[in-house]
Amino acid sequence: MTAPMTKRTVRNLLAMAMALLVIPSLGHAQEINGANTAWILTATALVLFMTLPGLSLFYGGLVRSKNILSVLMQCFAIACAASLLWFICGYSLAFTGGNGFIGGFSQLFLGNLGESSMSGDIPESVFIMFQMTFAIITPALIVGAFAERIRFSTMLVFSCLWLLLVYVPITHWVWGGGWLGTMGLLDFAGGTVVHITAGTAALVAALVIGKRRGFPNQPILPHNLTMTVMGAGMLWVGWFGFNAGSALAANGDAGMAMLVTHLSAAAGSLAWMAMEWIKHGKPSVLGIATGMVAGLGTITPASGYVGPGGALVIGLSAGVICYYATQAMKQKFQIDDSLDVFPVHGVGGILGTMLAGVFASDQLGVFSGQGYAEGATMASQLGVQAIGVIATFTWTAVVTLVLLKVLEAIMGLRVDAEQETAGLDLTFHDERGYDL
Question: In this predicted model, what pLDDT tens digit does every residue of 57-109 receive, in sequence order?
Fold first, then answer.
């Protein structure tokens, strides 16, 4: 009896030892995915790269030389202020608890964040930082609407309040467990959250603040298109982090999002270039760069749901429709959205959000996407997309208008005629962008 018992005991002990060796490794795999974490760290740096220096240079080259530093300063200051607001309460109100409209207070000042805190299979700190870069670039996009004529102090206060009252709630609605996400809205990387909000706010701001002196009778030309094209290239590269990073994993969704993002940008560029070539006889550098941004903004909400064929149609549509929207804004309606934020980002965001509801279908042959959620049809999905567009546009427009009117009464919005003529670089920063 003793010998068999001994062998059985040895076998049991060996089995227990093997289990103890395997279990920790399995537990570690469930806690953190190294590949996903490395990719989102990279994507985070790419999205910040979009704002600093990408958007800064893109916008900076489009204004006159006397206002170059003011635009760079505005983008830089917004990046700093938005980061601290996200730390204080933005992340908590966007992504934790709460109700269908706004999040909770469990992560105020990130008080419950530790090195072991997780968001899915990546560290929560990485997720917080990734989402912070979205909170940075969205109000920075609005800078293009009131460039060359807004007071710096008012711009900074407006951007902070707008982030908390517009961006944070809508982020919660769509991505933080709010009512639009629950309804099934397709917005992979920010068609509603980023582009419609920024574009709508830009339109309202341009109307409230008014035109630059001389617009539209006198030409107001970019001072450095070389700088603008450099910034555009940085935006294109950074956008891969924006869209592919929104998969929150190093997987097939990220790969497809990157592919369709690139295709849409290329198609948007060529479509805009073709429109200018047909209308004016020559293609412009500014046009091909702007078409790229239109293609990128329009594919953003659809990037995780559509295939390459759908991306081609979305990009071509963006180049043509956003081109006509830009012409209509400046020529027909004479609205001085200085750097075309609404016709490119607002119109592009609306277009992309709706087309996501079309090309997500898996019944379109070469233009098919990943398919709808169970029970959804193209008609029902387009209804949800329309609700998302209308709700985002309405909330953003109303809150932005109220904010601007209150700040106008308290602080003043616009510089005076003498300051505008001298340029904001000297007026507000006592510096020159160029001393040649």
Answer: 999 999 999 999 999 999 999 999 999 999 999 999 999 989 999 999 999 99
- Superfamily (CATH) of domain 58-100+122-429: Ammonium transporter AmtB like domains (1.10.3430.10)
Q: Identify the CA nearest to 294 among candidates 319, 328, 276, 277.
A: 319
Q: Is the pTM of this model over 0.85?
A: yes
| Domain range list for the chain | 58-100+122-429
Q: Please compute, for residue 30, the number of CA atoms within 13 A of its CA located in the half-sphere on the CB side.
A: 6
Residue 334 to residues 52, 211, 330, 365, 433: CA-CA distances in angstroms? 31, 9, 4, 42, 29
User: What does the block give as tokens for 311?
Assistant: 């991306």
- How many other CB atoms are there within 10 angstroms of residue 230's CB atom? 18
Task: Tell me the C-alpha distance between 75 and 60, whole Å.
Answer: 10
The set of long-range contacts for 95-98, using a CB threshold of 8 Å and a minimum separation of 24, is 95/131, 95/171, 95/172, 95/175, 95/176, 95/177, 96/176, 98/172, 98/176, 98/177
CA 386-387-389 angle, 5° bins: 65
Strands 118-119 and 122-123: antiparallel
**Cβ neighbours of residue 416 under 8 Å, at least 6 residues apart?**
none
Q: How many CB atoms lie within 10 A of CB 80?
A: 12
